[in-house]
Amino acid sequence: MSVNKVQANKVPNALAIGIARGGLEVKQFMRQRESVVFTLAFPIMLLAIFGSVFTNELTDGVTFSQYFVAGMIASGLVNTGFQQLAIMIPVERDFGTLKRLRGTPMPASSYFIGKSIVVFVTMVIQIALLLIAGVLFFGVNLPTDPAKWFTFTWLIILGSAASTALGIAFSVIPKSGRGASAVVSPVVIILQFFSGVFFVFTDLPGWMQQVAAIFPLKWMTQGMRSVFLPDSFAAQEVAGTWETGRTFWIILAWLIAGLVISIKTFKWEQER
């Protein structure tokens, strides 16, 4: 075997670099105590507030807390993926972090993989804490049907990937890291209200429902309701069914769109 072949075999590929970058991203996130506490505790705080205020049953056997947990898990995908990345990437761009990374052999795809890993790890921890709090303090019932857990699994994986891709794609919109939060946060808050996270979706005005149906958060929340609510509640949905297949394809379409836009528009440096 030639020396060139030996050296080529030692060069890590984009996936290996991305996994290594992901491990570093997770370590950096865990060292930011304020960010860790806020990211992981905020959904539980909202559950405590809404679960204490709205104690009524929506239908027989379905409490508002049960409905709200489904919405908060879906919303967590958007908060942890889309919102966090759309804010943090412009900050890293301003600080020169991306400029320094550009000078390394790491391709943009590895950077994307690293971000996907930290989003997924954070999301798993957040969901686990939210479910534990819901079961212990608010009587949330976990599904017993393996098919529902299968739906839950692909929703988490696909939703996390889509939110990550869309967050990277949207990160080119803020002109600076300082103003990123002011640009991104209102978008997320509006989508949460429109998508049935804080209120029963079918109680919203028809025009809000139509606007929400364009975006993935509405389908993520509906998908999570199909996991945590009884099948009889599907009759309360707009279509009268859970539309699980449609949910899968719409989120997948947004994932593909996010990846394409990210690849075409991602910037290592802010244009002056």
From TrEMBL:
Protein known as: Transport permease protein
Chief subcellular location: membrane
ABC transmembrane type-2 domain: residues covered: 34-269
Alphabetical keyword list: Antibiotic resistance, Cell membrane, Membrane, Transmembrane, Transmembrane helix, Transport
Stated family: Belongs to the ABC-2 integral membrane protein family.
One BP annotation, GO: response to antibiotic
One GO CC annotation: ATP-binding cassette (ABC) transporter complex
UniProt xrefs under Pfam families: ABC2_membrane
Gene Ontology molecular function terms on file: ABC-type transporter activity
